[in-house]
Design a protein that fits this description.
By secondary structure, the chain is of the alpha/beta class. Helix content is 36%, strand content 25%.
Length: 246
Amino acid sequence: MVELSRLEIGDNLHLAYRHRTGRGPTLIFLPGYMSDMEGGKATALDAWAEQEGRAMLRFDYSGCGASDGDFEEQTLAGWRADVLAMIDEVVEGPVVLVGSSMGGWLMLLAALARPERVAGLVGIAPAPDFTSWGFSTDQKMRILQEGRLEEPSPYGDAPYVTTRAFWESGEAMRLLHTDIGIECPVRILHGQADTDVPWTWSVEIMRLLRSADVQATFVKDGDHRLSRDRDIALLIATVKGLLEVL
C-alpha cells in the first residue's frame, strides 16, 4: 500500500492522501458523502492502477477518514477546495477525476474550475444538486430551522447527517439549471435500481454537458453503490477505455 501522506491546507489542518506515481493522466478518486479513500471502489481502482503502472491519487476530504477537521463543519465549497488543492499541489500534469455519488458533483465543479488540467471524467451514480432534489420540503425545513438533519444510514451504523451549512453551500453550487461548460470526455455508470440517486439524473447530466464525447452505461439491477465484483470490473473497464482515447 502507498504510504499515507498529508497536505497542509491552513490553520494546522491536513488532508490525508495516498499518491501512487506512474503513467499519466493521474486518476483521482472522489468519494461520496460520508465516505473515504478506503472504500471498495477506490481501493480496487488503485490496485488496478498499480498493476498497470498508472498514476493514482486517493484522499479524504476535510472532516472525513484520516483527514483533520470536524465533519459537521464541512461544506460542499470546502470539499471542492480540497479537490482543487490535490490537483494544484500534489499531482502534476493532466488528471482524470473518478467521482462517486457526491464525488460526481465535485468532479464536475473541479472540471469547471480547472479545465486545463482535467482531461476526462468518470461518474459513478453522479449526484449533482442533490441538496435540491434529494430532500423533501419537510426535511429542508428541518435543516433550516434546526441546523441539521440526522437520519439512519443504509450503509453503516453512523447516522446520515446533513447540516445547514452544507445544504446552503450545495444550493449555491447547483449545476443542473443550465448548460454545463465541460468539454472533456465524460463516462457515466449508473444502476437503474438505485434508490438514492435516480438514474434519470444521469440522462439529464448528459443532456446538459457541453462535451460531445459523453457515454453512459446503465446497469439494470445495479444499486447506488455499484460495488459488486461485476460492477467493479465495469468501472475498471470504463476507466481503461477512457484512458486509451486520451
